Amino acid sequence: MSEKDYRLSERILLILHNLGATSREKAKKSDELAQILQTDVNEVNQIMNKYQSEGYTISLTDNEGNIRHYLTGNGIIRVCSLFT
């Protein structure tokens, strides 16, 4: 299955995983994710808010005011479950 076969919400998790965004230091900006996924940054932020409430990601604001996201341990497990 290619990434394009997944829903946008699942593709966001896959992209975070593929980019190695698994810690605060490696967190990715919302606009970076939106650009990669060719979608609106507000849609990315909505999905990320949902994933944060479910414990799959952590969102933070960097020193420049950008929202950044990374996967938690549960988020990594969720990504792995997409492959089974």
Keywords:
84 residues, alpha+beta, Arc Repressor Mutant, subunit A, three-stranded antiparallel sheet
Q: Can you offer a commentary on this structure?
A:
This protein has 84 residues and is of the alpha+beta class. The chain has one domain (3-82): Orthogonal Bundle (Arc Repressor Mutant, subunit A). The chain has four helices and three strands. β2 and β3 form a beta hairpin. The longest helix has 14 residues, at 41-54. 24% of the residues are buried.
Q: What is the CATH level 1 assignment?
A: Mainly Alpha
Output the helix-strand order: HEHHEEH
Structural class call reads: alpha+beta
CATH architecture call: Orthogonal Bundle
Q: Low-confidence parts lasting 5 or more residues at pLDDT below 50?
A: none
Please identify which CATH superfamily we are dealing with: Winged helix-like DNA-binding domain superfamily/Winged helix DNA-binding domain
Share of β-strand residues: 5-15%
Number of strands: 3
Radius of gyration, CA atoms, in whole angstroms: 12 Å
Q: Counting H and I runs of at least 4 residues, what is the number of helices?
A: 4
Write the layout of secondary structure elements.
Elements: H1 8-18, E1 28-29, H2 30-37, H3 41-54, E2 57-61, E3 67-71, H4 73-82
Antiparallel strand pairs: 1-3, 2-3
Helix pairs in contact: 1-4, 2-3
Compact overview of the structure:
The protein is of the alpha+beta class and about 80 residues long.
